[in-house]
Amino acid sequence: GATPRAFVVGHPIAHSRSPLIHGHWLAEHGIPGSYERLDVRPAAFPDFVRGLPDSGFRGGNVTIPHKETAFALVDTLTPRARAIGAVNTLVVAPDGRIRGDNTDAPGFCAHLDQTLGAAWPDRAGGTALVLGAGGAARAIVVGLAERGLRRVWVANRTAARAEAVAALAPGIGAALAWDDLPAALPRTGLLVNTTSLGMKGQPPLAVDLSPLPAGAAVADIVYAPLETELLAAARRRGLPAVDGLGMLLHQAVPGFEAWFGARPAVTPELRARIVADLAG
Ligand code: SKM
Question: Is 200 one of the annotated active-site residues of the chain?
Fold first, then answer.
């Protein structure tokens, strides 16, 4: 058949490391495919999606600001994408129908499996505290619910948004006021920053980690810089610190497998390559 082609689409898209990740795997597997970076403005995105069946692409990744629009435009949704309300992976089926998935949630959890071991959902009795209430928080809360957490708190400066995200984990999710963080931290087994605080050019996230229990772990979705001040503070406390690059690497796996037919591995070599690119 024709050379398999896939893409990452966003606006802007220059910062995306997805072409590097998929290019690494294509070379590793000896697959003569391509993975292209596409900058598509919001106004042009619906036509872009409708044109996919005749484009020669087998699918692609979708990033900011198109994930919610993609959710609304696809023909079928995975249950996970439906729960999250956003799509980051498109697959064109042989019959031309477009399936939308969200791999951010399993990507986040797969990285925790790799770094903390598969028992991480049990830390501190199965309680996670998610900071922020944007798209990444939605994905992570759904992912945590899938993995059997017993309690998921969502804290956000805007309380109404925290309520909406907590509602994605029925029975276990609850909104938490920002002022109540110090009281919640002693019962938190996994603290996750999903805000952009700590990213290059942004102020750091100002949360005192000293109330966290000894068995807690701290995760950040920010990967530039790789070690945010939050993660540095976790390490100083002797707690496992999980950076955001792992989520980016792992969320890429299901798409690659769907478009190119081989299940790729997140190896130290791949990670080192992206780390070097981020540093350069
Ligand atoms: O969900 C991912 C997306 O699939 C690709 C991406 C990128 O290339 O920067 C970031 C995340 O939104």
Answer: no
User: Which domains are seen in the chain, by residue range?
Assistant: 5-102 (3.40.50.10860), 106-246 (3.40.50.720)
233, 238, 240, 245: CA torsion to nearest 10: 40
Coil, helix or strand for 72? helix
Place of tokens 């995760």: 219
| CA atoms of 79 and 96, how far apart (whole Å) | 20
How many angstroms separate the alpha carbon of residue 59 from the centre of ligand 1? 14
Across the chain, the runs of DSSP E, i.e. the strands, are 5-10, 34-39, 57-62, 76-77, 89-92, 98-101, 127-131, 151-155, 173-176, 190-193, 217-220, 241-242
Residue nearest to atom 9 of ligand 1 (CA): 16
CA 141 to chain CA mean position, Å? 11
The per-residue pLDDT for range 156-173, each reduced to its tens digit, is 988 899 999 999 999 999
The full DSSP string for 129-198 is EEE--SHHHHHHHHHHHHTT-SEEEEE-SSHHHHHHHHTTSTTTEEEE-GGGHHHHGGG-SEEEE-SSTT
What is the helix (H) or strand (E) element at residue 255, kind and residue range? helix 253-260
Identify the active-site residue in 24, 67, 138, 147: 67
ipTM value, please give it. Answer: 0.99
Q: Using CA atoms, how far apart are residues 92 and 59, in angstroms rounded to an integer?
A: 5
Residue type, 195: T
Report pLDDT digits (tens) over 60-89.
999 999 999 999 999 999 999 999 999 999
| DSSP code, position 44 | G
From CA 146, how far away is CA 3, in angstroms rounded?
36
Task: Give strand pairing partners of 151.
Answer: 127
Structural tokens at position 177: 């006021």
For tokens 């966290």, the residue is: 212
* Protein residue whose Cα sits closest to atom 3 of ligand 1: 63
